[in-house]
């Protein structure tokens, strides 16, 4: 970079010198032209005077005419002298301009010298910086070489470990393939058993729904027959479960989730993971609305999950809070 700056400075100096030479040549050319014009005027003046002398000798009889002619010639000479004076003034002006140009060039040359000195100092500073950077580079190269040697040794060790791991992986793959073949038959058997269990579960659910309907019908009929009789404690398993869960409602933080009545009830079954019985459990502990579920804290999720005796972590996995928040937003 220092060499490039030096080359630019040299080129600027050369350009300045060339400009100075061109200006000097133009000035010299102009002076030569003015001198030639002056010489021509003097030659013309001499010629005129010679002609006047010749006419005076040869034509004495026409002296008056010659005098007039001489006067005319003198007038022309005066005009030429005036022109010469004007040319002298022009020449003087050009000399002053040249002198000013010389002074300007001298000032520019001094400035260039100062700039060259400044660039020289910068170049020295850059050279010192370059030396420092070279030293740092050499240090880094030595350090990198040491690290490279260390990494080479570690890489060789890792290669050995990778070979052993590859052997173990191959053995594990063989074992896995054997176990996979053995488990295919077990998987098929389990699928058949699961299908059978699902079928039985659907039958049991249908049967439970029928019994639930019968129970509800019995309750309605008993109310019609004995309207003034005291309500008896439900004896069905579902009713017992709801009563047991209702007793745990005191564990719920209603200050956090808010309260609601059955008249404000939302269809909680819209939320994925909440069926008819789970909705009844939630209603039993005082949870009726999407807004209440959307206000669940992390602690509330676990407490509600435990209170309604649901599968562990199901409230979190099915994201009841997120679903309730979205349903509440759409509802509004």
Describe this structure in words.
Among the domains are: 2-127; 234-331, no CATH class. It has helices at residues 2-58, 63-225, 237-246, 254-257, 276-284, 290-294, 298-307, 314-317, 320-331. The longest helix has 163 residues, at 63-225. The protein is 83% helix and 0% strand. The chain is an all-alpha fold. Helix 1 runs antiparallel to helix 2 and helix 3 packs parallel to helix 5. It has nine helices and no strands. The radius of gyration is 59 Å and the shape is elongated.
Number of E-type strands: 0
User: How much strand?
Assistant: under 5%
Helix-strand topology string: HHHHHHHHH
Task: Round the Cα radius of gyration to an integer and report it.
Answer: 59 Å
**Structural class by secondary-structure content:** mainly alpha
3D shape: elongated
Helical fraction equals over 70%
Residue stretches low in confidence (pLDDT < 50, at least 5 long) are 226-235
**Beginning-to-end CA distance, first to last residue:** 71 Å
Count every helix, treating DSSP H or I runs of 4 or more residues as helices: 9
Note the main sheet: none
Determine the mean pLDDT.
Answer: 78
């Amino acid at each position: 970079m220092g060499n490039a700056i030096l080359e630019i400075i040299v080129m600027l100096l050369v350009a300045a010198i060339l400009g100075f030479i061109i200006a000097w040549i133009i000035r010299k050319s102009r002076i030569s032209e003015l001198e030639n014009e002056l010489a021509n005027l003097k030659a013309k003046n001499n010629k005129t005077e010679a002609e006047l002398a010749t006419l005076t000798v040869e034509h004495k009889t026409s002296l008056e005419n010659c005098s007039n002619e001489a006067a005319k010639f003198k007038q022309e000479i005066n005009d030429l002298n005036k022109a010469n004076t004007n040319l002298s003034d022009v020449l003087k002006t050009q000399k002053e301009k040249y002198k000013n140009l010389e002074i300007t060039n001298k000032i520019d040359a001094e400035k260039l010298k100062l700039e060259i000195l400044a660039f020289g100092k910068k170049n020295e500073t850059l050279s010192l910086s370059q030396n420092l950077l070279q030293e740092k580079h050499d240090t880094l190269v030595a350090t990198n070489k040491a690290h490279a040697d260390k990494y080479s040794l570690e890489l060789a060790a890792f290669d050995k470990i990778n070979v052993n791991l590859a052997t173990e992986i191959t053995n594990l793959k063989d074992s896995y393939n054997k176990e996979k073949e053995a488990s295919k038959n077990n998987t098929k058997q389990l699928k058949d058993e699961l299908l059978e269990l699902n079928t039985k579960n659907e039958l049991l659910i249908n049967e439970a729904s029928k019994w639930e309907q019968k129970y509800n019908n019995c309750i309605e009929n008993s109310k019609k027959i004995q309207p003034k009789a005291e309500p008896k404690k439900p004896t069905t398993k579902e009713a017992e479960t709801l009563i047991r869960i209702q007793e745990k409602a005191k564990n719920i933080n209603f200050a956090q989730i808010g309260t609601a009545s059955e008249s404000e009830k939302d269809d909680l079954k819209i939320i994925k993971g909440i069926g008819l019985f789970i909705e009844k459990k939630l209603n039993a502990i005082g949870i009726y609305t999407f807004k209440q579920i959307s206000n669940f804290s992390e602690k509330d999720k676990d407490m509600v999950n435990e209170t309604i005796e649901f599968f562990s972590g199901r409230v979190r996995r099915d994201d009841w809070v997120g679903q309730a928040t979205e349903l509440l937003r759409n509802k509004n």
